[in-house]
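stuck on this:

***
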Amino acid sequence: MRAGRAIFDPASPTRRSHSARALRTRQGASVAGMGSRADGGYSATMFSADDLRLFLEVARRGRLTEAAKYLQINHTTVSRHITRLERAVENRLFDRTSDGWTLTDAGLRLLAHAETVESAMRVAQEDCLSRDSSLTGHVRVIAPDGFGAYLLLPGLVELQRQHPDLTMEIVTANRHASLTPREFDLAVTIERPQARAVTVQKLANYTLGFYASSGYLASHSPVERVEDLYDQVLIWYVDTALDLTTFNLLYEVLPNAKARIQTNNIAGFIQSAEADLGIALLPSFIADRNPRLQRLTSITARIESSYWLSVPRDLVRLARVRAMVEHIEKLVAERPDGLSAAR
C-alpha cells in the first residue's frame, strides 16, 4: 500500500457518507447546469457565471477571437468555457462557420437567462459599491447632437452635484439605425430604435422652424411664403449625417431644395446662420433661445419630429441608469415651447 493514499471500503460508513455527499453534489450540479436529458433527468455537468459571461461576449461579438480580445484572455480559455457550457446543457450553442459564430436555437434560449444573470450581478455590484444614496460607476448616453449639446449636457449640473463620483459619458451621434445595446446604457434617438433587447418609450415631440440672422435677411430678398425659400441659401445636413427619415424633413417641405451650405451637426448650422451664410432648419427649443437668430414667422408649415428613449433590458434595474432616465425626463418636462414630453 502506498503511504498517504486512503483506501475506502465500499461497505464502510465512511464510504457510504462520502458517496451520499457526492450524490448530493452531483444533484445540485445538475440543477445548476440546467441540462436536460431525453430521459427526463439532468446533466451532472456544472457551469458558472464566468461560463455565461464568456458565452455572452461570444454571442455579442460573433467570433471567439474577438470575444477573447475584448476580455483580454486567451482564445483557448474562451473555447474551454464554451465547451463546458455546451456539455452542461447537452446542446450545441453556436454554429461555427467561416463567417463567425451564430447562436443556435438552444443558444438563443440560453441568451435570455445569461443576460438576466449578468443584470443581477451588475445590480448586486452597484448596490455594494454605492455609498449611502450617492451613485458611482459609469453611465453612457448616446444622443443626437442637438439634444445632447443643447439640452442634456447643460442640464447635468444638478445630477453631477448629487452624484459626484458618477462618471457620465455623453456621446453625440445622429445616425442610430446600426446601434447595438452593447454601445450604450441609454440612447436618445430621433427614429424609433429597432435594436433587440431594449425597452423603448417615446420621450418627447419637438417642432422645427426656419431661422436666419438679421444681417442675412436684410441683404436678401424677403421670404413671405414657403416657395420663396427656393431663392435662398439653405443650410442643411450632408446626406451621410442622418438616417433617411430625419434627413428628409427639409425635403418634405421643399421637395426640390438644394442646400448650398451642408454640415453634419446642429452647432455648424447655428454658426453658419449666425455668420449670415443662410437660412437653417432648426429645432425650435434650441433656436428660439439664440438672440442672434430670428424665426421666419411667415413660414407657417408645421414641421415636427420626436425623440425616443431606449435602455437595454438587462440594465433597466441599475440605479445609475434609472437616475439618468429620470433626469432626462425632468429636463424635457421643464423645457419651454418647442419641446413637449410625450404623453
